[in-house]
Amino acid sequence: MAKHIHVSEYNKQSETLQLACECGWKGATKEAFGEIHEAVMDFECPKCDKMLLIVNLIVDAEKFYGNKNKK
Fold first, then answer.
1. Do the beta carbons of residue 5 and residue 50 sit within 8 Å?
2. C-alpha pair distances (Å), 24 with each of 13, 14, 35, 58
3. pLDDT at residue 67 tops 90
4. Alpha-carbon distances, residue 32 vs 14, 49, 64, 70, 71 (angstroms)
5. Are 33 and 22 spatial neighbours (Cβ–Cβ below 8 Å)?
6. Is 45 within 8 Å of 21 (Cβ atoms)?
7. Whether the Cβ atoms of residue 64 and residue 58 lie closer than 8 Å to each other
8. How many CB atoms sit inside 10 A of residue 55's CB?
9. pLDDT tens, residue by residue, 24-41
10. How is 8-30 classified by DSSP, letter by letter?
């Protein structure tokens, strides 16, 4: 299962954060396949494509979801 962290934690650890996969791959987040979505950023193993890390990008949930519900 992928590890989940908040963007504030990711920002503190981004230079030193290491990922490891069941397939044996190990490396830094910058070596993994990263993709940014509207509310999350995710990182996959470059060897087997398994999801390793999901970073929650929502800083203010009320503001984010409140804007989504307005018509």
1. no
2. 22, 21, 21, 31
3. no
4. 12, 9, 28, 36, 38
5. no
6. yes
7. yes
8. 23
9. 999 999 999 999 999 999
10. HHHHHHTTT-EEE-TTS-EEEGG
CA angle 12, 13, 18 (to 5 degrees): 175
**Residues 15-26: tens digit of each pLDDT:** 899 999 999 999
CB 24 within 8 A of CB 47: yes
Quote the tokens at residue 66. 């409140």
Instruction: For the chain, give every domain's residue range.
Output: 3-69
Torsion of CA 26, 2, 14, 55, to 10 degrees: 160
